[in-house]
Design goal:
Oligomer: single chain
Shape: elongated
Number of strands: 10
Order of helices and strands: HEEEEHEEEHEEHEHHHHHH
Number of helices: 10
Length: about 425
């Protein structure tokens, strides 16, 4: 005979615990807010590196010459009047030092490379300022190498931008990949001049030849507002469809229990995101929607077992049936959660950036989903059906030990 765990005894404690966490989360959202990413608010995001200029490249001629620097080497595209259209590739594997690279660049007619700092080329190569035109001309195009010896911190970058409002700076990467991510919120038409003003402030603070802008993005207010609205509609539509599906397959109270468990998981995740001020981006929203799908799957399995046990388990009260169903599905719930959690934890420990945040949000959601399917959904169903009674109506207890359950369920309504 299987061991029946009295889960129902822990329902009051579980409900109070969840209520405390969610209320604290709501308070955190009200007082500290949510750290919305660029996807959800108008503003600019830039990634900068404190770097050294090692080469300055110019061009004097009638053709058009553009220069690109990537992880493998330097590429120059020559086109237009006075030159044969061609692409000149200089792999880093063929050059060892800055002077070797300069000599290769100087082989292109009209192009001049001026060495600013002689050194061996790093393994990850050189990079150019994303804000500069890639077309060569009389104005020098700088090629940078990351400066790993600088003592500049995120606080120093933040201090350089102290005259701007809604500035957030964080350090990403390490070694030669070390960079600073600068996010700045805007209002109205401020975004038209924000980037230029911020870049000038950084150049004034650290030197124009020491600041390299790796990448930059900008999003307008109208797009961010529509994305927030569409995200809310998406989540609400998902909940409505889940309720309709569960009501058709089970019963209204089962369906509402499933939705309450899902809302619980979403609120727990939002509370956690607000507590640690994790950036809320479209990736984080994807994590919440993933957990909604995972949670309803786990809850439906339990609800299906409850419906099945109503017909075959010997019991006098609905509480006994519910405890029996939860005990039967416990191992399945734990094993499913753990196997999924192993994959998510691998992402958490071996990735960075948005995927790292995605996996962290999923970890919290997986634990919450397993917990809510048992304790939150179970507590609600028991509260609705606590007065439902069962009695023997047949000699064979394995055939029909109870009254017509569907009729009694209707009475509960």
């Amino acid at each position: 005979m299987k061991k029946i765990i009295q889960f129902s005894k822990f329902f009051p404690v579980a409900v109070v615990l969840s209520a405390v966490i969610i209320i604290a989360g709501i308070a955190s959202v009200v007082t500290r807010g949510i750290n919305f990413g660029l996807d959800f608010k108008p503003g600019m995001i830039e990634e900068i590196k404190i770097a050294n200029t090692v080469l300055e490249v110019t061009y004097n001629g009638t053709a058009t010459v553009s220069l690109e620097a990537n992880d493998d080497g330097i590429q120059m595209v020559v086109s237009g009047i006075g030159e044969e259209n061609r692409t000149v590739s200089i792999p880093y594997a063929e050059v060892k030092t800055v002077s070797d690279l300069a000599a290769k660049i100087n082989d292109v007619n009209g192009v001049s490379a001026h060495i600013k700092k002689e050194m061996e080329l790093p393994k990850d190569g050189l990079f150019v300022n994303s804000g500069s035109s890639k077309n060569l001309g009389e104005k020098p195009l700088s090629l940078f190498v990351a400066d790993v010896s600088t003592g500049i911190s995120a606080d120093d970058v933040r201090a350089a931008l102290k005259t701007f409002d809604n500035v957030d700076v964080k350090e990403v990467g390490d070694g030669t990949s070390r960079a600073f991510q600068v996010r700045m919120g805007v209002t109205g038409d401020e975004g038209k001049t924000l980037q230029a003003d911020a870049n000038k402030a950084l150049s004034d603070a650290f030197g124009a030849d020491k600041v390299a802008f790796v990448k930059s993005d900008f999003i307008g207010a109208q797009f961010s507002q529509s994305l927030i609205r569409d995200s809310i509609i998406l989540v609400l539509a998902t909940l409505v469809l889940i309720f309709i599906y569960s009501a058709i397959r089970f019963h209204w109270d089962f369906a509402l229990a499933a939705v309450i468990a899902i809302v619980h998981d979403a609120l727990i995740m939002v509370s956690f995101i607000s507590f640690i001020q994790m950036e809320f981006s479209t990736t984080t929203l994807a994590a919440i929607l993933t957990i909604i799908g995972y949670s309803i799957n786990a809850t439906v399995v339990i609800l299906d077992r409850v419906r099945s046990d109503i017909k075959v388990v010997e019991a006098k009260t609905f509480k006994e049936v519910l405890d029996s169903a939860l005990s039967s599905t416990l191992s399945r719930s734990i094993i499913t959660t753990l196997t999924t959690l192993f994959a998510v934890l691998a992402l958490f420990f071996f990735t960075t950036g948005t995927i790292h945040d995605f996996s962290l949000a999923l970890t919290v959601g997986l634990i919450s989903g397993c917990y809510s399917s048992i304790f939150i959904a179970g507590a609600f169903i028991l509260a609705v059906r606590k007065n439902q009674k069962f009695q023997t109506i047949a000699a064979n207890p394995n055939v029909s030990q109870f009254k017509a359950v569907e009729e009694e369920a209707d009475d509960v309504e």
